[in-house]
Specification:
heterodimer; A: mainly alpha; two-stranded antiparallel ribbon; 3% strand; globular; B: globular
């Protein structure tokens, strides 16, 4: 199964739910979780938000795990570094290699960072998995977030999909010619992919500019307000 | 209506994409621009509403010379709409309706007018009901139709389509042709670039042939396809129907120098031949 966050955002039980409420809820929970800095509260938020995502929004648990897995990998790496390489204080564990030790300080940092991030992830996930980006951007607009930021977000969002598609196609093409057969060819293929993607992106952005221009773009993206549906 | 006078354009000092192209398209016409890949079709199209400014030569729309200041550009871009070859290059908004609304909003219309136009344009291309959909969840054919709706919503007088049938399935091609013919009947002038010779006689009243940045021929499909040397120069071939009748001629049937180009013409000709023999 391919993990398509955008598809999930469009197809779940909370898609049509008021986006302002979702936005505020996520932001407030994020702030509270960070401010309280309490291990029990972190776990509590993690559990509650996970239940909301899985049971109320009815998002497939495998998709949710995939959503968690990527930031989780970063989180674990970060916490390992925090645990072994940071902080002062009393030594509570000696690894015996190059004098690397765990101190009370670093232990504290690692655990608290881990739990804090763990609590915040489902808060963000709640917004990201249940709200189509178009709605989030519309909220930000009405909340008077600077136009330029919203426009950049919108164009980035559009390009990400084109970009991912390109990478996907190119990678398949390389794969079918055994581009990732060994370590050495993998390195070479990845390098070729990266440089070609760069050139293609430039190309694409120029064509996009042309097509925007030809529809009268004047440097500012106008905002469309759809007609209210008659209930 | 739309006139191009001796346009020259170079991408760099080594590559002269257009070497002096002149053509004239009348109001309400449906014309095809034939040429192989890299002949300069897309480059020429980007001149038609002022995306590219020619190194030499002028473009006239409704007898007015195309100018390159902001105000005139907006006016001309409303009159001449370009549908790009790859809809992904054109569709950028997160929902279908926002993308279709982009052009009309840039024209400074009222929100109500824009809403009407979006609805109307989507209905025209048969995409009503997809307003809130994200474009990347659509199929290739649907994206193409949204791209066309985005241009239609600007109510252009001239619609320019760069290889509109590229990447469409056969049914998609048929539907697109039908749509374009309807639009043409409503008075929109249509210019299509293509190298699919089989389709050209079905819709094009006139054909231009572009080779290496030069226009080498223009005329009705009948005239153009009767000149094998032009087709060869342009890397094109005859419509498959026409080829069949040329082969038949070699078998001893007299075609009187009139080769059918479309299925309908071929049918008549066949019946004619059958009744003669």
């Amino acid at each position: 199964m391919k993990f398509d966050m955008d598809y999930i955002a469009h197809h779940n039980e909370l898609t049509e739910f008021n986006p302002y409420f979702k936005l505020f809820l996520s932001i407030i929970l994020l702030i509270v979780t960070l401010a309280l800095d309490n291990l029990y509260f972190d776990v509590f938020i993690f559990v509650v938000m996970s239940i909301v995502i899985l049971a109320i929004a009815k998002i497939n648990y495998r998709s949710y795990l995939k959503f968690l897995s990527i930031p989780m990998a970063f989180l674990i790496i970060t916490c390992i570094f925090l645990l072994f390489f940071f902080g002062k204080g009393d030594v509570i564990y000696e690894t015996g290699i190059f004098g690397i030790v765990v101190t009370t300080d670093s232990y504290h940092y690692a655990v608290y960072t881990f739990m804090r991030v763990l609590g915040c992830l489902p808060c963000l996930g709640f917004l990201a998995l249940t709200t189509p980006i178009a709605k989030v951007l519309n909220c930000l607009r009405t909340l008077k977030v600077p136009k330029i930021l919203v426009e950049i977000a919108l164009l980035m969002y559009n390009s990400i999909f084109i970009f991912l598609n390109e990478i996907d196609t190119m990678q398949k093409a390389q794969n079918s010619r055994l581009g990732y057969h060994s370590y050495w060819t993998s390195f070479k293929s990845l390098g070729a992919l990266a440089s070609t993607i760069f050139l293609r992106s430039l190309d694409k952005s120029e064509t996009l500019q042309h097509s925007l221009d030809s529809r009268g773009y004047d440097g500012e993206l106008p905002v469309y307000k759809p007609r209210k549906m008659e209930e | 209506m739309l006139e191009v006078k001796n346009i020259k354009y170079a991408y760099n000092s080594e590559y002269q994409a257009l070497k002096g192209v002149s053509l004239k398209i009348e109001k309400g016409e449906m014309v095809a621009l034939l040429g192989k890949n890299g002949a300069g079709k897309s480059t020429l199209f980007l001149h038609l509403n002022g995306i590219y400014e020619p190194d030499e030569g002028q473009v006239f729309i409704d007898g007015e010379e195309l100018k390159y200041d902001k105000k005139s550009l907006l006016k001309f871009r409303q009159k001449v709409g370009i549908v790009f070859q790859n809809p992904d290059d054109q569709i950028f908004a997160p929902t279908v309706e926002e993308d279709v609304a982009f052009g009309p909003l840039n024209l400074g219309l009222s929100m109500e007018e824009v809403q009407d136009r979006v609805e109307e344009a989507l209905a025209r291309v048969g995409m009503s009901g997809f307003e809130k959909t994200a474009p990347h969840h659509l199929s290739g054919g649907q994206k193409k139709r949204v791209a066309i709706a985005g241009i239609l919503a600007m109510k252009p007088e001239i619609m320019v389509l760069d290889e509109p049938t590229a990447g469409l399935d056969p049914q998609g091609v048929v539907n697109l042709q039908k749509l374009l013919r309807q639009l043409n009947d409503e008075g929109i002038t249509i210019v299509i670039s293509t190298h699919e010779v089989d389709l050209v006689p079905n819709y094009a009243q006139r054909v231009f042939v572009l080779v290496d940045g030069l226009l080498i021929a223009e005329g009705t499909p009948k005239e153009i396809f009767a000149q094998p040397e032009i087709l060869e120069q342009a890397n094109l071939k005859l419509p498959i129907v026409t080829e069949l009748f040329q082969e038949l001629e070699q078998e001893g049937f007299d075609m009187e120098n009139d080769y059918p180009l479309t299925i309908a013409e071929a049918k008549d000709k066949f019946l004619d031949l059958l009744s003669k023999n």
